[in-house]
């Protein structure tokens, strides 16, 4: 039992951490300057991201599937049904969440921080770092939200990963699969572990916040 | 550093806030700007500091359109203090300038002596009172010893003793060679330290 479950948990964590990490780095790096600048297309870019934020994972799965399949533009790399494909799909799902939430939670305060940094002689990079540093708590919560979306998501990883035992099977696809076979006990165990991981992540964040107070 | 304002116009929501044809702030003077609420004093300072753009016109620093960002420092009307200790807040701009530890200590000693900062230094800057915050904001700007210092109501929440010390600090900055442009609603303060007192009215600069 354990030898079957452990790789599933491990892969889940790897895929979700990696995709949350990539999505956060890109999403936050884009969101911080975006929250300061004012330009014509700003409203539309935000609107598009809000839509992408609530995109059904199966649709994202479908798109990534098509791009990675033999006929798709990245077909030559044979990425379909690998953990890489799952990371790509989840990164694309999490990125708009991180971006939109960061922009909306920083929009007021980031301009204020930028002005105060600037009049003390800060350069662009120093301003960027200051904003992230000042808003670290909000950003941490946003990353947690993104991670929650990644690790609990089933549609996209099922489609582009294929739920192959020992290769691309993660916790959520495991639950779906075992439930389908009528193995409720295994499904519940993994479900419990999934909840437990959320609990750990949330507790860590709260400890961190408490320390920062 | 001297500052020349050329044909600056600024409009917010179709309300003309600033419309200044020409004005020259001479080097090494203390200018005090007065005016009613909402007359555009902060807007003018922000434009000189470069954190707001005028709709039209330009600002010349020593007759040039641009200057080193290290040459200007400003204390905003509602300063944002960083979520860290008072000490870190005060030396923030020195860090941006990559100034060494020795010099940082020297300047801290020199400038913190104006106000009783002792117990405050290790406190979180977010937990300060209004007057304490203003002291920190004034210090972190003054400690940079920049050529041009812009102060937007620097003593509006300070008590009388601290206000006098702040004025002494500002006068000392002038003696060190800085040009100072400040806003205040305190007429007696303006008379105490201002070399030139300016009235901002209907978006224009008038002398009192
Ligand atoms: N970002 C903004 N958007 C819209 N209106 C603004 C903005 N900033 C300032 N204003 C308006 O411009 C006018 C001038 O504002 P400013 O802050 O320069 O006034 P002030 O002279 O500094 O007033 P106070 O004495 O109250 O500090 C005000 O009517 C204000 O409402
Ligand atoms: Mg003002």
From TrEMBL, chain A:
Q: Where are the transmembrane segments?
A: 6-32, 44-68, 80-106, 187-205
Superkingdom is Bacteria
Q: Name one GO cellular component term.
A: plasma membrane
Which N-terminal residues, if any, form the signal peptide? Answer: none
The residue ranges of the ABC transmembrane type-1 domain are: 9-205
Q: Which InterPro entries match?
A: ABC_perm_TupB-like (IPR049783), MetI-like (IPR000515), MetI-like_sf (IPR035906)
Homology family? Belongs to the binding-protein-dependent transport system permease family.
Keyword Membrane carried by entry: yes
**Which protein, by its recorded name, is this?**
Tungstate transport system permease protein
Q: Which GO terms describe its biological process?
A: transmembrane transport
Instruction: Tell me where it resides.
Output: Cell membrane; Membrane
From TrEMBL, chain B:
- The residues forming the signal peptide are none
Q: Which GO terms describe its molecular function?
A: ATP binding; ATP hydrolysis activity
Which residues are listed as membrane-spanning?
none
Q: Which Gene3D superfamilies is this protein grouped with?
A: P-loop containing nucleotide triphosphate hydrolases (3.40.50.300)
Q: Which Pfam families match?
A: ABC_tran
Domain (ABC transporter): residue spans on this chain: 3-208
Q: Which UniProt keywords apply?
A: ATP-binding, Nucleotide-binding, Transport
Q: Which domain of life is it from?
A: Bacteria
Q: What PANTHER family does the record tag this protein with?
A: SPERMIDINE/PUTRESCINE IMPORT ATP-BINDING PROTEIN POTA, SPERMIDINE_PUTRESCINE IMPORT ATP-BINDING PROTEIN POTA
Q: What is this protein called?
A: Tungstate transport system ATP-binding protein
Q: Which organism is it from?
A: Caloramator quimbayensis
